[in-house]
Amino acid sequence: MTSSIRAFMIVIVVFSVALGSFTARAQRSGPEVEYAAAQGGLPFSPYVRVDNMLYLSGQLGTVPGGGLAEGGVQAETRQTLENIRNVLERAGSSMNHVVKCSVFMEDMNQWPAMNEVYVTFFPEHLPARSAFGSTGLALGAALEIECFATVGN
Question: To pair with 44 at 20 to 30 A between CA atoms, which of 12, 20, 23, 77?
Answer without folding.
Answer: 77
